[in-house]
């Protein structure tokens, strides 16, 4: 029976870092079944769900300290129980463009929490507008709205929030 392990690794970006990490994972007998990687200010953040038998995951856990030292990584491992997929949730994408200010992301996350909307992914980026030299931000999210929530209510209240916070916002269903 396959089990799962979440790994998060943070280290200074350099050639071969991710290759070394994924090589160690595969040599332990684990499979990377889901992963995300981001480069932020010269640092790489790698997060993944690893699957394998109990002994392959144990092998990786036992070698974690050596891996930390060899690759100079901050490393966390956590065993997880596989949960059945939540059904009856509708996938939506949320896009925001606004003046960069403290608290915008927190306000958005609070809104979605209030409606019991699961936030599956968040990507933020700050920049300075070429035309006005105004500090700006983009926020992109993937959310899963419970089908018990009236969609028009959630969308209408989301647009009201955007108006109140002076955000240019869009919420659309993900089309596959």
UniProtKB/TrEMBL annotation:
PROSITE patterns: ACT. One of its GO terms (cellular component) is cytoplasm. It comes from the Bacteria. Residues 6-82 form the ACT domain. Keywords: Cytoplasm, Repressor, Transcription. GO terms for biological process: regulation of DNA-templated transcription. The keyword Ribonucleoprotein does not apply. Transmembrane segments: none annotated. It is found in: Cytoplasm. Pfam families: ACT_6. This is Glycine cleavage system transcriptional repressor. It comes from Natronospira elongata. The lineage of its organism: Bacteria, Pseudomonadati, Pseudomonadota, Gammaproteobacteria, Natronospirales.
């Amino acid at each position: 029976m396959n089990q799962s392990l979440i790994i998060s690794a943070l280290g200074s970006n350099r050639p071969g870092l991710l290759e070394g990490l994924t090589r160690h994972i595969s040599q332990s007998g684990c499979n990377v079944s889901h992963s995300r990687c981001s480069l932020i200010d010269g640092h790489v953040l790698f997060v993944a769900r690893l699957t394998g038998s109990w002994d392959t995951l144990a092998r990786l856990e036992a070698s974690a300290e050596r891996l930390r030292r060899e690759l100079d990584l901050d490393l966390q491992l956590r065993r997880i129980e596989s949960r059945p997929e939540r059904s009856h949730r509708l996938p939506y994408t949320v896009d925001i463009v606004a003046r960069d200010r403290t608290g915008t992301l927190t306000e958005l996350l609070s809104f979605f929490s209030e409606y019991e909307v699961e936030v599956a992914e968040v990507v933020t980026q700050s920049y300075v507008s070429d035309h006005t030299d105004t500090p700006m931000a983009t926020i992109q999210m993937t959310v899963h709205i419970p089908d018990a929530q009236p969609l028009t209510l959630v969308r209408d209240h989301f647009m009201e929030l955007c108006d109140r916070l002076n955000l240019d916002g869009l919420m659309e269903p993900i089309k596959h």
